[in-house]
Structure to design on (87 residues):
């Protein structure tokens, strides 16, 4: 199947978010997706800040940040308060 965490075709953006299946979104004309050298980094550019933030919060619903490990969809400079594990 897909080896990267995300791929894009002409009409859809496919993401591996830790589920058994790929999550896909329809291509949006006002957004630009840029892949980094790191496998898990993706930058999304848009001309409309409101629609960009809505899109990112939709992504976060599929993989919210984990408070124990820090995994999940995060903003660039977002900080998470980690909870200590029980012994």
């Amino acid at each position: 199947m897909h080896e990267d965490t995300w791929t894009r075709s002409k009409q859809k953006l496919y993401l591996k978010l830790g589920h058994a299946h790929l999550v896909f979104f329809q291509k949006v004309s006002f957004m630009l997706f840029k892949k980094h050298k790191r496998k898990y980094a993706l930058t999304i550019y848009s001309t409309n800040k409101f629609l960009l933030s809505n899109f990112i919060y939709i992504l976060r619903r599929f993989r919210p940040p984990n408070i124990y490990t820090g995994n999940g969809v995060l903003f660039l400079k977002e900080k998470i308060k980690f909870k200590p594990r029980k012994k």
Observations:
- The longest strand covers residues 31-35.
- The domain at 1-87 is CATH 3.90.930.12 (Outer Surface Protein A; domain 3).
- Strands lie at 6-8, 12-15, 23-26, 31-35, 42-46.
